[in-house]
Design a protein that fits this description.
456 residues, alpha/beta, Rossmann fold, UDP-N-acetylmuramoyl-L-alanine:D-glutamate ligase, Protein-Tyrosine Phosphatase, Chain A, 10-stranded mixed sheet, 21 strands, globular
């Protein structure tokens, strides 16, 4: 099953979400794994506890001694580890190029989409684990039920979050693929919506001939992918789809109860504890996939009832003096709207404050008109400076311009994260819920503000 077993693998940028997960899986399989990263982090510490040799800085010696080097997309060719590997004749691969070897021998179950793929992947990995399938999995964030974002299982299935950035998911040939939606994102990689959609078209064409594709029919971009696939199935809440969720009713836990239906045939009743209609969609995708695999659908519904979410996906950080603080990874207009709607659903009697840290200049500028209209559910909006990530700041555009564009009568611009927290401590009136929307480092806003409220 493991074509590189007993060989030495060195990861450059091993502390990143994607590479650390792969390194963990390989370490648990018993491979000789080494890595390097610019700085120590909880992920590098986790790998070290597993026996992975992690160098903070560079590690050309291990790179030269490896059978293969895998580098993060953010690592340049000039990196000392990469250069040392090249000089020694060691193959240097990106994630996309390494995935066929990582997943060889498994039935790969891949979850792709502009939004919802992390939560759906976490739901799927947890559900298959609860059903006794012992899957190998890689998720973009830690699943609360599983206590990790990656594990080497002994079962036949490899559950993986199929990331479109840098065309990573084109390294997969899934037995089954889920596409939650297709909406233009990552304009630094995909300049036009057509470029973005074309990447997904290429991805679904790689689904194995003996496998199947599941797509969300409530989104035009994903629905169009099913039209060209003979082995495609659709799911949706109310649209004309093969799998549907009917009878949605709010429950006492803040989620929805519903019935999963396959072509008018009820499959099972479901009671979710995670909020929002978007999570009904995610759960329905998992139930549809379980049904197509011929596994226990009512058992899957029981597992989903116990699902507690994934890190930074509507993660309740804490509460102080009547103010609840929530972290969420939302960084696209559609995700922001869904998260704020979920907050309204779960906390209907509280004032809703949104803190938005825009993520990358290219995304913020390209989608600015849509971002501007995404905060109608909130009672107040705090906009921070843009998280640059992999981009250099342009001279004419930043967080202040993004804040000015937001269409909301009560908005604030905070030039620092400390200032954003101070606004929350000074201006929020309980009972309230504060949702921090960030794919960057604004998670510290909720912690700082929570501490400020605890000390008031």
């Amino acid at each position: 099953m493991n074509s590189l077993e007993s060989k030495r693998v060195h990861f450059v940028g091993v502390g990143g979400t994607g590479l650390s997960a792969i390194a963990r899986v390989l370490a648990e399989r018993g491979w000789h794994v080494t890595g390097s990263d610019r700085q120590a982090s909880p992920r590098t510490a986790m790998l070290q506890r597993l026996g992975v040799e992690v160098a903070i800085g560079h590690d050309p010696e291990h790179a030269r001694a490896a059978h293969v080097v895998v580098r993060s997309s953010a690592v340049p060719e000039s990196d000392p580890d990469v250069a040392a590997a090249r000089e020694a004749g060691v193959p240097v691969l990106k994630r996309r190029d390494f995935l066929p070897q990582l997943t060889a021998g498994y039935d790969v179950l891949a979850v792709a989409g502009s939004h919802g793929k992390t939560t759906t992947t976490a739901m799927l990995a947890w559900t298959l684990t609860a059903l006794g399938q012992d899957p190998t999995f890689i998720i973009g964030s830690e699943a609360a039920n599983l206590g990790t974002n990656a594990r080497a299982g002994k079962g036949a299935y490899f559950v993986i979050e199929a990331d479109e950035y840098d065309y990573m998911f084109l390294g997969l040939q899934p037995y089954a693929a889920v596409v939650t939606n297709v909406e233009h994102d990552h304009p630094d990689m995909f300049p036009t919506p057509e470029d973005f959609h074309d990447a997904f078209r290429r991805f679904v064409e790689q689904v194995r001939a003996d496998g199947f594709l599941l797509v969300y029919a409530g989104n035009a971009g994903s629905r169009s992918l099913a039209e060209r696939q003979a082995h495609a199935w659709t799911y949706a809440l109310n649209d004309d789809a093969d799998y549907r969720a009917t009878g949605l009713t709010l429950n006492a836990r803040g989620g929805y109860d519903f019935t999963a239906v396959f072509r008018e045939q009820p499959l099972t009743s479901v009671s979710l504890g995670v909020p929002g209609e978007h999570n009904v969609q995610n759960a329905l995708a998992v139930l549809a996939l379980v049904h197509r695999l011929g596994l226990d659908v009512p058992g899957a519904a029981e597992a989903l009832a116990d699902f507690r979410g994934a890190g930074r996906r509507f993660e309740v950080v804490g509460e102080a003096r009547g103010v609840v603080f929530v972290d969420d990874y939302a960084h696209h207009p559609t995700e922001i709207r869904a998260t704020l709607a979920a907050a309204r659903q779960r906390y209907p009697d509280r004032a809703l404050w949104a803190v938005w840290q825009p993520h990358t200049f290219s995304r913020t500028r390209t989608l600015l008109a849509d971002f501007a209209r995404a905060f109608s559910q909130a009672d107040a909006v705090v906009v921070t400076e843009i998280f640059a990530a992999r981009e250099a700041p342009p001279p004419d555009f930043g967080g202040r311009q993004a804040a000015e564009a937001v269409q909301h009568p009560r908005k604030f611009f905070a030039s620092t994260l400390q200032q954003a927290a101070a606004v929350l401590v000074e201006r929020v009136q309980p009972p309230a819920v504060v949702v921090v929307l960030s794919a960057g480092d604004a998670t510290q806003v909720s912690r700082l503000a929570l501490k400020g409220w605890q000390e008031k």
